[in-house]
Design brief:
The structure holds two protein chains of two kinds. Helices cover about 0% and strands about 60% of the residues of chain A. Chain A contains no helices and eleven strands. In chain A, strands 2, 4, 5, 9, 10 and 11 form a six-stranded mixed β-sheet that branches. In chain A, strands 1-3-8-7-6 form a five-stranded antiparallel β-sheet, with no helix packed on it. In chain A, β7 and β8 form a beta hairpin. Chain A is globular, with a radius of gyration of 13 Å. Chain B is mainly beta. In chain B, strands 2, 4, 5, 6, 9, 10 and 11 form a seven-stranded mixed β-sheet that branches. Classes of the chains: A mainly beta, B mainly beta. Chains A and B meet through β4, β5, β9 and β10 of A and β10 of B.
């Protein structure tokens, strides 16, 4: 069965302290891996799609990477406004979509 | 563009009551879906539609009905609400199902069933 596991469950960083979030997955044929940001009381907001191992994408302080078994979301020099829950999702070849439970990131000034 | 809109934002039901959660998008997207989000769990797919008149079940369809009479609207019906259906419900849409397309999410409906 397709499965997505995110770690850590929660992460507290000081402003400027870089770190990485992990998304491990098992899927029967990866069609795409997605990263979303979700603020409290709001719907998920799209960040990145990765399609194949070795692919990397960047947006401001965020960089997403993909291997055959996991994806990392690297946050460089985070700011308090980066505080949010980050969700990872995989879409299988049969179009089945599975989400991880998310990592709740808090960045303190 | 309003994007994906959902109504109501909050709803309280009694066990056994029925109701419809509304979802609309103005982006002419073919694919629409409903998810529920529970604490400590990822978003779980309830039902989805690949176009007007076509719907299919997701991971957790029991207790929910959907229909898609127009491209814009995709309502979710709870037939007889149960406390286990207390959750936050999100509607999403994208250009197409295949090809790992980006999904745009609505703001959510927080449902409590007493």
């Amino acid at each position: 069965e397709d499965q997505v596991t995110q770690s850590p469950e929660a992460l507290r960083l000081q402003e400027g302290e870089s770190s990485s979030l992990n998304c491990s997955y098992t899927v029967s044929g990866l069609r795409g891996l997605f990263w979303y940001r979700q603020d409290p009381g709001k719907g998920p907001e799209f960040l990145f799609t990765l399609y194949s191992a070795g692919e990397e994408k960047e947006k401001e302080r965020l960089k997403a990477t993909l291997t055959k078994k996991e994806s990392f979301l690297h946050i460089t020099a985070p700011k308090p406004e980066d505080s949010a829950t980050y969700l990872c999702a995989v879409q299988a070849r049969n179009n089945d979509m599975r989400f991880g439970a998310g990592t709740r990131l808090t960045v303190k000034p | 563009n309003a994007g994906v809109t959902q109504t109501p934002k909050f709803q309280v039901l009694k066990t056994g009551q029925s109701m419809t959660l509304q979802c609309a998008q103005d982006m002419n997207h073919e694919y629409m879906s409903w998810y529920r989000q529970d604490p400590g769990m990822g978003l779980r797919l309830i039902h989805y539609s690949v176009g007007a008149g076509i719907t299919d079940q997701g991971e957790v369809p029991n207790g929910y009905n959907v229909s898609r009479s127009t491209t814009e609207d995709f309502p979710l019906r709870l037939l007889s609400a149960a406390p286990s259906q207390t959750s936050v419900y999100f509607c999403a849409s994208s250009w197409r199902l295949a090809g790992a397309d980006t999904q745009y999410f609505g703001p959510g409906t927080r449902l409590t069933v007493l």
